[in-house]
Amino acid sequence: DLLYVSLDKREEEKLNSISLALVNLIEAQNIQAQITARLTANRNSLGRNMAHIKRIDFLPVIGNALDEALRDSGVDFLEVFDQQEVMVYRTQGIDLSPPSAGNWGVFEALSGSPSLVSSVEKGGLTLRAIEPIRHDGVVVGALSAGLRFTPEVLKRISKNLGAELALVTSTGKVLAASSP
Fold first, then answer.
1. Report field, pTM of the whole predicted structure over 0.85
2. Distance, CA of 124 to CA of 12 (rounded, Å)
3. pLDDT digits (tens, 9 = 90+) for 36-77
4. Contact 87, 140 (CB under 8 A)
5. Which of 49, 68, 67 is nearest to 134 (CA)?
6. How far apart are CA 154 and CA 143, in angstroms?
């Protein structure tokens, strides 16, 4: 009896440690996305070019700024929205459906408040840090820096932790898992 209690206690401690490691990893990823969004949104060239978005020749400059930031950041994608909540640019390499005009967090960023949001997209969990883009103190757009928690990402984490992992909603729906 004492042996079973001891083994149960040890398994519970192991689960708590793995949970804590996963929570800390997700928190670190959130911070990484927030820093990337804040630094990229505060680039003077981005705000200046967003202020003149009506001129089509500024769009490649915005794209170059985001593509360069993506290479240096470690996030999965960057998106820029204009003042009407319309996405004007998304970096390549991510297969997501276009966000709707009601994209969570964009309205708040356009009102001047940064936000951190999560959503289920293409069978995985997507985390976005969204920051206002300013020019001369005026909000001229919003920038979203995103990370995806896909089964591939969870497999890598699972291997490092030595445990199978799954991200599950409060209703029990599996968003991503390290094994099928």
1. no
2. 27
3. 998 888 876 788 878 876 666 677 778 888 888 888 888 988
4. no
5. 49
6. 26
